[in-house]
Design brief:
alpha+beta, Immunoglobulin-like, 2 domains, 5-stranded mixed β-sheet, 5 helices, 27% helix, 23% strand
Length: 227
């Protein structure tokens, strides 16, 4: 039997480099040796031989749900496995910070990129989720008591600093080797800076997503103040 193991990002942004990794693929003892491993990154793109590398670095030029297929061949019929990835436009991703915001603090930050990545948008996306989760925990919701989404925030400048410091903290947490090493210290420092940014008094919201400010939210108490 052939056991196809895949590591990939579930969400990526248009034109951002991402990796589909099948290094963990293995066979049962009674199976013949693998002779060919191929990946088709999306429908009709064609299969690409990755037998030697066991991964494919790719960039999607259009948004939408993409189906990538991995095909492994031994001496018999090939075995295939499909995965789905969601590709977002910059507008739909609506990240609260980007790499240009963090490079001003760490000029050599790109040397810490993970294999298969050309940016830190994955960390900015985690920071975005953390901020939205934080606002939810404070009881800051929309008019129907639903958790806020990125499009509900009227002015992203109000959360940019918070997001960039969180992203920097996450990056240095990912590379630290000891609790008290220099990267752990950097991570803690940026985490503290992010925490301070999270205490701003008000956050303007656009709850019906029409591009017009609807409310001003007190981030301390979570009370909506209409203007």
């Amino acid at each position: 039997m052939i056991f196809i193991q895949i590591k990939n990002e579930n969400i990526v942004q248009i034109d951002d480099k991402t990796r589909i990794d099948v290094e963990g693929t293995f066979i049962s003892p009674d199976e013949a040796a693998i002779t060919l491993i191929e990946i088709e990154p999306e429908a009709a793109a064609g299969y690409i031989d990755v037998t030697s590398t066991k991964y494919l670095d790719w960039s999607y030029s259009t948004d939408g749900v993409k189906i990538a297929t991995i095909r492994v061949t031994t001496d018999g019929a090939p075995t295939s496995k499909a995965i789905s990835l969601t590709v977002l436009s910059i507008a739909d991703d609506r990240l609260f910070s980007t790499d240009k915001d963090i490079v001003s603090h760490e000029a050599d930050i790109y040397r810490f990129l993970r294999p298969g990545r050309a940016s830190f948008l994955d960390f900015h996306r985690v920071a975005q989720k953390m901020i939205l989760d934080d606002l939810d925990q404070r009881g800051i919701t929309d008019n129907q008591d639903n958790k806020l989404t990125a499009v509900d925030l009227f002015d992203l400048e109000e959360v940019k600093a918070w997001s960039k410091y969180l992203a920097l903290s996450l990056i240095f947490t990912s590379i630290q080797s000891e609790v008290d090493d220099v990267y752990a210290i950097k991570s803690k420092s940026y985490s503290d800076m992010g925490a301070r940014q999270s205490t701003r008094a008000f956050l303007r919201l656009d709850l019906d997503n029409d591009g017009v400010q609807d409310t001003t939210n007190n981030m301390v108490s979570g009370i909506l103040a209409r203007r």
